[in-house]
């Protein structure tokens, strides 16, 4: 056996690129996301306060999104599995995190200024349908593409690349992007 440094840089023998120290981080993130989802789901059904109900719904859908992003890569393309597969910082500049924080600030201000607007059943139903359809479309894209899907934009064609024309790709050329757009807009309508 080599030095301690060699031991820590070995890869897990399961066709992923995860260093040995990553499972603790991943399990901690997964625990936090699962706990957030569970508490949020409980909050959606229990609270009578409009603000907390909407905040719970927001937290539930955001945590579900991150769990499904990681799980889809782990299941269908483990070669590209890494801690960034949770998609907390997809652009590298934390713009996604800032957008989520801004959404919470926006929700707080709207609930203080115009609380009855947030009770509109038409907008809530429309937003909910967009979120669910968008999440389904995005996750369906990962399932349909399997090993051809990853979170990185390819700048050149590799030998392993192939055009996917089955599953959701049969109906939409870029279902992952369309799904995320529907999810994000729907979430903003809800919130």
From TrEMBL:
Compartments, as annotated in UniProt: Endoplasmic reticulum membrane; Membrane
GO MF annotations, alphabetized: protein C-terminal S-isoprenylcysteine carboxyl O-methyltransferase activity
Species per Swiss-Prot/TrEMBL record: Smittium angustum
EC number: 2.1.1.100
Protein name: Protein-S-isoprenylcysteine O-methyltransferase
First-listed, main subcellular location of the protein, grouped into a coarse class: endoplasmic reticulum
Keyword terms, alphabetized: Endoplasmic reticulum, Membrane, Methyltransferase, S-adenosyl-L-methionine, Transferase, Transmembrane, Transmembrane helix
Name of a matching Pfam family: ICMT
GO cellular component: endoplasmic reticulum membrane
Membrane topology: Multi-pass membrane protein
Membrane spanning stretches: 28-54, 96-115, 121-137
Keyword Membrane: yes
Known catalytic reactions: [protein]-C-terminal S-[(2E,6E)-farnesyl]-L-cysteine + S-adenosyl-L-methionine = [protein]-C-terminal S-[(2E,6E)-farnesyl]-L-cysteine methyl ester + S-adenosyl-L-homocysteine
Similarity remark: Belongs to the class VI-like SAM-binding methyltransferase superfamily. Isoprenylcysteine carboxyl methyltransferase family.
The keyword Cell cycle appears for this protein: no
Domain of life assignment: Eukaryota
Enzyme class: transferase
Biological process terms in GO annotation: methylation
């Amino acid at each position: 056996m080599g030095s301690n440094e060699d031991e820590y840089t070995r890869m897990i023998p399961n066709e992923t690129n995860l260093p040995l120290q990553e499972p603790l981080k991943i399990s901690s993130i997964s625990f936090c996301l699962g706990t957030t989802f569970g508490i949020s789901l409980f909050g959606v059904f229990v609270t009578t306060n409009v603000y907390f109900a909407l905040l719970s719904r927001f937290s539930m859908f955001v945590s579900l999104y991150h769990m499904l992003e990681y799980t889809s890569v782990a299941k269908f393309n483990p070669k590209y599995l890494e801690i960034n597969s949770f998609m907390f910082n997809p652009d590298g500049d934390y713009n996604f995190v800032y957008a989520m924080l801004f959404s919470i600030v926006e929700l707080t201000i709207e609930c203080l200024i115009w609380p009855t607007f947030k009770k509109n059943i038409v907008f809530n139903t429309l937003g909910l349908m967009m979120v669910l359809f968008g999440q389904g479309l995005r996750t369906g894209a990962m399932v349909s593409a399997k090993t051809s899907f990853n979170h990185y934009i390819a700048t050149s064609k590799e030998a392993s690349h192939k055009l996917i024309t089955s599953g959701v790709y049969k109906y939409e050329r870029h279902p992952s992007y369309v799904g995320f757009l529907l999810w994000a807009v729907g979430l903003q309508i809800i919130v």
